[in-house]
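README: folding subset

This subset contains proteins for which both the sequence and a predicted structure token string are available. Records are stored as plain text. Below is the entry for Alpha/beta fold hydrolase (371 residues), shown exactly as it appears on disk.
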Amino acid sequence: MPLHLAQAAALVGQATLSPEPGPLPLDRAAAAGDMLEDMLAGIARWRAHEWRRPEERAPVLWSDGATELRDHGGGTGRPVLVLPSLINGSEVLDIHPERSLLGTLRAAGLRPLLLDWGVPGAEEHGFGLADYADLRLRPALAVARVLAGGPVPVLGYCMGGAMAAAAAARRASDVAALVTIGTPWNCQEGIWIARMVRELVRPDPAMARAALQTMGASFGLIPHDAVQTLFAGLDPGLALRKFARFTRMEGLEAELFVAVEDWLNRPVPLAPAVAEEVLIDWQLHNTLAAGVWEVMGGPVTPDAIACPTLSFCARRDRIAPPANADALPGAIPGARIARPDTGHVGMIVGQKARAEVFEPIVDFLDNVRIC
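--- output ---
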């Protein structure tokens, strides 16, 4: 929030700069002030809003350290293992009763098993992604397989999609089908974060890794804000606009706004080694697309994935735009690509999420079941 406020103040300041010498026209000064006032009013309304997402927790089937495998299917239906990102909390997949991926799967007779990575505790402070894959994902996949009585579909959102692809490539006999949503893969394409990081560390590429290691040694974990600062730069005026719009929202639209903002502002710090992999190895060295990212005992090569695959690569995704995300399904034999007309988070919480993402997933998994 302090970063968003600072960005908004800077943008308003820029709006009040006149290209011509002399006093600023009163209408421009008033308009800039109104923009900031609307944003502040929206923030106050969000904080005071009566609606909050219920904190009911699904039954835990298995856990280790901070990670829990939760049964969001009520104990019945065909199991589907669902993997969220490690950067933000898993509740986005069940953000509101009217906009829930897990709820849609459950209503369709499926049994979503959510692998919630949790906030890294003492056991996970030294974890890299290979540790999460071997010590958290692999046992959870084994539990899901037992419940399914055989191979289980695996669905992953954002970073969770990369972990799901790893399971499909490295544990092929356990995975019946693969679904990825907004999963980055070719980080040399389509996103400015990698280019910005490369420019920042051009004089000494080891500097970024050393900085993350120092931060990890100082705080134990990489603070959530350190990562979110990069994403905030994708659209510096977003907070100014969205909180101003919130002052006019009512009903379901307002409740969804509150739910998403609560989610975005609930920090999930990263284990230092995970931050190094995601921000340096993935972004700078493009280890995913290069086929040298190693988990579960070897490199993750998409052409080794033989199960039916459906990947959602949204047209307006700024985190994993099509030039980036297409690389994963493009390397998987027979993979299907769906292109929702939405953004990265919109694929999960937006107005088009149910029609363009949730329901196609159900149809795809129904066809896999028939096969």
